[in-house]
Here is the input.
Amino acid sequence: MTSGSRQNPGDSPGFCFYGAEFTHMMDYKHVFVLGTLDYYQYMNPEFVYEIDGKVSEILEREV
Here is the structure.
Protein backbone atom coordinates (compact mmCIF):
# COMPACT_ATOMS: atom_id res chain seq x y z
CA MET A 1 0.00 0.00 0.00
CA THR A 2 1.48 3.32 -0.96
CA SER A 3 1.16 6.45 1.11
CA GLY A 4 -2.13 8.17 0.40
CA SER A 5 -3.83 5.04 -0.87
CA ARG A 6 -6.91 3.67 0.83
CA GLN A 7 -7.52 0.03 1.53
CA ASN A 8 -10.73 -1.68 2.61
CA PRO A 9 -10.66 -3.59 5.92
CA GLY A 10 -11.39 -6.90 4.17
CA ASP A 11 -8.41 -6.54 1.83
CA SER A 12 -5.74 -7.73 4.26
CA PRO A 13 -5.42 -9.10 7.79
CA GLY A 14 -3.02 -6.28 8.71
CA PHE A 15 -5.45 -3.55 7.65
CA CYS A 16 -4.58 -0.04 8.71
CA PHE A 17 -6.25 3.15 7.45
CA TYR A 18 -5.02 6.68 7.96
CA GLY A 19 -7.38 9.56 7.23
CA ALA A 20 -6.60 11.41 4.01
CA GLU A 21 -5.41 14.52 5.83
CA PHE A 22 -2.75 12.55 7.73
CA THR A 23 -1.26 10.36 5.00
CA HIS A 24 1.69 12.73 4.49
CA MET A 25 2.68 12.10 8.12
CA MET A 26 3.29 8.45 7.27
CA ASP A 27 5.62 9.14 4.35
CA TYR A 28 8.98 7.42 4.91
CA LYS A 29 7.80 5.90 8.23
CA HIS A 30 7.97 2.23 9.16
CA VAL A 31 4.73 0.62 10.32
CA PHE A 32 4.91 -2.67 12.16
CA VAL A 33 1.91 -4.94 12.64
CA LEU A 34 2.25 -6.79 15.93
CA GLY A 35 -0.58 -9.23 15.29
CA THR A 36 -2.01 -9.18 18.80
CA LEU A 37 -5.60 -10.18 19.44
CA ASP A 38 -8.02 -7.53 20.66
CA TYR A 39 -9.38 -9.17 23.79
CA TYR A 40 -7.23 -7.74 26.55
CA GLN A 41 -8.26 -5.17 29.15
CA TYR A 42 -6.24 -1.95 29.27
CA MET A 43 -2.76 -2.52 30.76
CA ASN A 44 -3.43 -6.23 31.33
CA PRO A 45 -0.07 -7.70 32.51
CA GLU A 46 -0.31 -10.57 30.00
CA PHE A 47 -0.87 -8.05 27.18
CA VAL A 48 2.02 -5.84 28.35
CA TYR A 49 4.29 -8.90 28.40
CA GLU A 50 3.21 -9.91 24.88
CA ILE A 51 3.69 -6.39 23.48
CA ASP A 52 7.05 -6.02 25.22
CA GLY A 53 8.28 -9.24 23.62
CA LYS A 54 7.11 -8.32 20.14
CA VAL A 55 8.45 -4.76 20.28
CA SER A 56 11.80 -5.96 21.68
CA GLU A 57 12.06 -8.44 18.80
CA ILE A 58 11.48 -5.66 16.25
CA LEU A 59 13.92 -3.28 17.92
CA GLU A 60 16.63 -5.95 18.00
CA ARG A 61 16.19 -6.54 14.25
CA GLU A 62 16.26 -2.81 13.44
CA VAL A 63 19.41 -1.94 15.41
Q: What stands out?
A: Residues 1-31 form one domain.
